[in-house]
Amino acid sequence: MDRRKFIQQSCSLCVAVGAGMVVGSLSSCSVLPTYKTSIANNKVTVPVALFTQGNFQLIQPKNLYYNIGLKKEADGTYTALLLKCTHADNQLTPAGNSGYKCTLHGSTFNMDGKVTAGPAERPLKKYTTEVISDQIIIHLS
Length: 141
Prior knowledge:
Helix content: 10-25%
Strand order of the largest sheet: 1-4-5-6-11-12-3-2
Shape: globular
Order of helices and strands: HEEEEEEEEEEEE
Low-confidence stretches: 15-30
Distance between the termini: 55 Å
CATH topology of the largest domain: Rieske Iron-sulfur Protein
Mean pLDDT: 81
CATH superfamily of the largest domain: Rieske [2Fe-2S] iron-sulphur domain
Number of helices: 1
């Protein structure tokens, strides 16, 4: 086999395996609502209207490597968690109503950000939130 053909086949295999991993991770958490937004003055703004269909929203701030899990609590307040594993800084994936999972080493966290299985030992970073004029403000500092 010549070098060019080897590289093409290797790249095709990598793409196929990568696509399979993405589809596999999505199937475990069904289709999650993702809201893409930007950061202004170290704050992320999310419309309250996003929560008419459910009590969880995945927030994807532009220029922030990690997503934020935003959950509407029973009392009408909102909890925002940075979805960054506290063990190895890996992006966490939502695992349905049970919380979040790290695909790197298997750590799991509940919806409140507390560790439910290691190797992580520290809870997830929680951001302060407030509601102003039908907007949820997530304070990143």
